[in-house]
Amino acid sequence: MSPSDRLAKRVEALLGDPKAGSDFADLFETRSVFVHGRSIEGLVPSKDRTLARQLARRVTMALIDAAIWPAGQMARADYLNGLA
Questions:
Q1: Where does the source fall among the domains of life (predicted)?
Q2: How distant is the alpha carbon of residue 23 from its chain centre?
Q3: What is the Cβ-side half-sphere exposure of residue 48, based on CA atoms within 13 angstroms?
Q4: 67 CB contacts (<8 Å, ≥6 apart)?
Q5: Residues ≥6 apart with Cβ < 8 Å to 84
Q6: Which pLDDT score is estimated for 45?
Q7: Ramachandran angles phi, psi of 17, nearest 5°
Q8: Domain ranges of the chain
Q9: Which residues contact 29 (CB under 8 A, 6 or more apart)?
Q10: Which of 16, 42, 64, 69 is surrounded by the fewest CB atoms within 10 Å?
Q11: Whether the Cβ atoms of residue 67 and residue 75 lie closer than 8 Å to each other
């Protein structure tokens, strides 16, 4: 499994939302196009920028919540491996 696929699966598992995982994968592809200098037509649509901010906020909140509960007592690698 590629690192980006693993991240998408972790986002999906963390949020309990399959759509969040696919949204992450789509946004990651857009990011890759931009970062690696491939041609990108126009600006990144505002809906994608908004979705990225919302997804980042949801993931951050879920990770903070996980740190407060028993998962916070787990080793980082164990917790992440449990997500995907």
A1: Bacteria
A2: 8
A3: 12
A4: none
A5: 1, 6, 9, 10, 12, 13
A6: 82
A7: -140, 105
A8: 3-83
A9: none
A10: 42
A11: no
Which residue shows structure tokens 């998408």?
8
Span 14-63, pLDDT tens digits: 999 999 999 999 999 988 887 887 766 777 788 999 999 999 999 999 98
Phi-psi label, residue 37: left if phi above 0, alpha if psi -120 to 50, beta otherwise: left
Which pair of structure tokens corresponds to residue 22? 């696919």
Residue type, 83: L
